[in-house]
Specification:
Elements: H1 4-11, E1 40-43, H2 55-61, H3 75-86, E2 88-92, E3 95-98, E4 109-115, E5 124-129, E6 134-140, H4 144-150, H5 156-159, E7 162-169, H6 170-177, H7 181-202, E8 206-210, H8 215-221, E9 229-238
Antiparallel strand pairs: 1-6, 2-3, 4-5, 4-7, 5-6, 7-9, 8-9
């Protein structure tokens, strides 16, 4: 018997004789970003060339790192890797395009950070706002235990300097692509995760992507309505144990 994954693959296939039709209603297009109005903001440094290694070396040396030292990640480095994953790369005709590709340039992925050991950033739960390259403080405190439990109790989230949480605002993609949108959402998150991993490797940092997640616990940590927005992936990051 087919499982739900098999059915998803079959039911979201494009077929030449059954392509979805209709016109898009631009008046109902969701915003491609989320903002926590009134939140305290930490404006990150303008992203400058930071890599200490060429791209070829980043690709060859990237590893999944699960053991992190207690060394703090610099403010400049957290600024760069966050921008590399989710930041604005250029603006064309008043539309901000980002560093990672996105189906239809709809950018369904939101970026949150559980900060533990980052210079000039108090420990807490943050949301990244790409338009002005800032971290919006959702709540100050030590959220590592929450992130660890949500990541199937994987202890790397306790020792990581920061854990990134990537979520999807479903309607941003479904507005155009309907049920096929979920395929594109997962691809978008993968592009962003790879940008994060390679940029971190170029700075001598380590990362580990996490797909094993208790969805409801991660959504609760971020105070999300899972009908509108839900967790896709987590990434632990920091200085690796040498």
């Amino acid at each position: 018997m087919d499982g739900i994954g098999d059915r998803f693959q079959k039911e979201t296939k494009y077929r030449r004789d059954k392509l979805p039709g209709g016109r898009l209603d631009l008046s109902t297009r969701p915003k491609p970003y989320k903002e926590y109005e009134g939140a305290k903001k930490i404006v990150l440094d303008k992203p400058k060339p930071r890599l200490i290694a060429p791209l070829d070396l980043c690709i060859r040396t990237r590893r999944s790192v699960r053991r992190f030292s207690g060394k703090a990640v610099s403010f400049q480095d957290i600024s760069y890797i966050t921008w590399a994953a989710a930041g604005v790369q250029r603006i064309e005709e008043n539309y901000p395009f980002r560093t990672a590709p996105s189906a239809g340039a709809l950018y369904p992925i939101e970026t949150y950070l559980v900060v533990h050991n980052v210079e000039d950033a108090p420990p807490g739960l943050y949301h990244y706002f790409p338009l002005d390259h800032s971290l919006e403080l959702m709540e100050e405190g030590d959220f590592r235990p929450h992130a660890t439990r949500a990541a199937l109790d994987q202890k790397m989230c306790m020792s990581a300097a920061v854990t990134f949480l990537f979520t999807a605002v479903w309607e941003r993609s479904k507005w155009k692509y309907k049920q096929r949108a979920y395929r594109y959402i997962y691809l978008d998150a993968g592009h962003m995760g790879q940008n994060l991993a390679l940029s971190a490797a170029g700075l001598g940092l380590g990362t580990c992507a996490i797909g094993a997640i208790y969805d409801e616990e991660a959504d609760a940590l971020l105070q999300l309505d899972p009908e509108e927005e839900g967790i896709i992936m987590m990434v632990a990051a920091g200085h690796p144990v040498r």
